[in-house]
Structure formats: C-alpha cells, structure tokens
C-alpha cells in the first residue's frame, strides 16, 4: 500500500486511452464513506468481502487499467481472477524507501494504524509472499511516477509484439 498503484495506474490508463478503475474508490462509492470509516464501522472482513466482489465484477470487463488495494492478493481467489483475466504488474518498493513514505499514507491506511514501526516492518516482509504472483515487476525506488508509467507501457507494447495470445485481449482499442 502506498507504493503508487493509484497514481501510476491513472497515468497508464490516460496514456493508453483506457478507463481507469480504482477498486478502493469503487468500494468507497458502495459504502458512501472513506476506507478508514468502512474499517471502523463494518470491520476489515466486510471490506475484504466487498473488495473481492468488486474485483470479480470488474475483472470481467475488458480493456481497463485497474488498481487493486495492496491487501487484495491476500485472497487467493482475487489473485486467480486477476491472473486469469488480466496482466498483473507488481509495483515494488524497498522497505527503506517505503518507511520514508509512511507519514504520507498512514492516515488513509487503517491496516497500518495502531502498529509500531517494528510491526509495520513485520507486515511489510509478511506481505512479500502474497506479491510473488504477477506477470511483471517494477522496482519503484527513487523513480518518478511518470517514468514508471512509461516503463509499464513499454513492457505492454513489447508483450503485444511478442505474445500473439495477449493481442486478442488488449489490442482491440
Ligand atoms: N513514484 C513515486 N514517487 C514518490 N511518491 C509517489 C510515487 N508514486 C506515488 N507517490 C505518492 O505516494 C502516495 C501513495 O500513492 P498512491 O498512488 O495512493 O499509492 P497506492 O495506490 O499504491 O496506495 C501518494 O501521496 C503519491 O503522491
Ligand atoms: O494493503 C491493504 O491492506 C490496503 C490497501 C489500501 O489500498 P492501497 O494499496 O491503494 O493503499 C486499501 O485497499 C486498504 O486501506 C487496505
Ligand atoms: Mg490506491
């Protein structure tokens, strides 16, 4: 969380003339409240159920750039749905760089709240396992969002050129 999925996903979508869907924003629309309030009012389990429901629904729509929340791949079903229906890009950030960003993101990330820095670090390393499933990975340490979005687009273009099977899914603009 806080690696830049929403920011970079939006840039990628704009550059590819695709619709951008941020799953967290869709969840907020459904509950008509911000994520920290959803966690407080209904609990994380309800949030996770809604997250799965919305990702499942959007995964069936084609030609979109979708940003899922950083905890989504904790659910095996979501992981499978994303890998089957899309091309999954992992945005990575080292612990040293991520910890510098914590002050910026903590207010809107209830999963991080009420934890010590040591506990957050533990969560960071635990989470690495759930991120091992993806199609392509980018280390974003000290790289501007614009530049990362260009890398993603270059990688996609390369895969369109090389892998004919993908073309049916994403080339029909
Ligand atoms: N490449 C980057 N370098 C520095 N800051 C970034 C970068 N990408 C995003 N940010 C900042 O980090 C914060 C979290 O970004 P966000 O896109 O919401 O991440 P996510 O959707 O992964 O949680 C925002 O304040 C954003 O401006
Ligand atoms: O990692 C997580 O468990 C979460 C990440 C958040 O999204 P971002 O990854 O966009 O911050 C949001 O879905 C929620 O606060 C839970
Ligand atoms: Mg986000």
TrEMBL record:
Binding, substrate: 24, 48, 70, 127
Catalysed reactions, semicolon-separated: shikimate + ATP = 3-phosphoshikimate + ADP + H(+)
One GO molecular-function entry: shikimate kinase activity
Annotated metabolic or biological route of this protein: Metabolic intermediate biosynthesis; chorismate biosynthesis; chorismate from D-erythrose 4-phosphate and phosphoenolpyruvate: step 5/7
Main location: cytoplasm
Residues reported to bind Mg(2+): 6
CDD domains, sorted: SK (cd00464)
Superkingdom in the source lineage: Bacteria
Cofactor(s) essential for the protein: Mg(2+)
Cofactor binding note from Swiss-Prot or TrEMBL: Binds 1 Mg(2+) ion per subunit.
Cellular compartments annotated: Cytoplasm
InterPro entries in the cross-refs: P-loop_NTPase, Shikimate/glucono_kinase, Shikimate_kinase/TSH1, Shikimate_kinase_CS
Enzyme Commission number, as recorded: 2.7.1.71
Keywords (A to Z) from UniProt: Amino-acid biosynthesis, Aromatic amino acid biosynthesis, ATP-binding, Cytoplasm, Kinase, Magnesium, Metal-binding, Nucleotide-binding, Transferase
Top enzyme category: transferase
Chain residues that bind ATP: 2-7, 109
Record's subunit section: Monomer.
Its job: Catalyzes the specific phosphorylation of the 3-hydroxyl group of shikimic acid using ATP as a cosubstrate.
Record-stated family: Belongs to the shikimate kinase family.
Protein known as: Shikimate kinase
Organism in which the protein naturally occurs: Scopulibacillus cellulosilyticus
Protein encoded by which gene: aroK
């Amino acid at each position: 969380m806080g690696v830049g999925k929403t920011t970079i996903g939006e840039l990628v979508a704009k550059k590819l003339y695709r619709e951008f869907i941020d799953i967290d924003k869709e969840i907020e629309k459904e509950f008509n409240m911000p994520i920290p309030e959803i966690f407080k009012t209904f609990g994380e389990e309800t949030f996770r159920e809604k997250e799965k429901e919305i990702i499942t629904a959007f995964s069936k729509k084609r030609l979109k750039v979708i940003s899922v929340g950083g905890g989504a791949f904790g659910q095996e079903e979501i992981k499978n749905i994303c890998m089957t229906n899309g091309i999954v890009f992992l945005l990575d950030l080292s612990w040293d760089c991520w910890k510098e960003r914590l002050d910026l993101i903590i207010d809107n990330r209830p999963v991080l709240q009420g934890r010590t820095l040591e506990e957050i670090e533990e969560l960071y390393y635990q989470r690495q396992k759930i991120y091992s499933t993806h199609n392509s990975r980018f280390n974003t340490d000290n790289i501007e969002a614009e530049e990362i979005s260009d890398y993603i687009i270059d990688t996609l273009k390369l895969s369109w050129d090389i892998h004919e099977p993908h073309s049916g899914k994403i080339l029909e603009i």
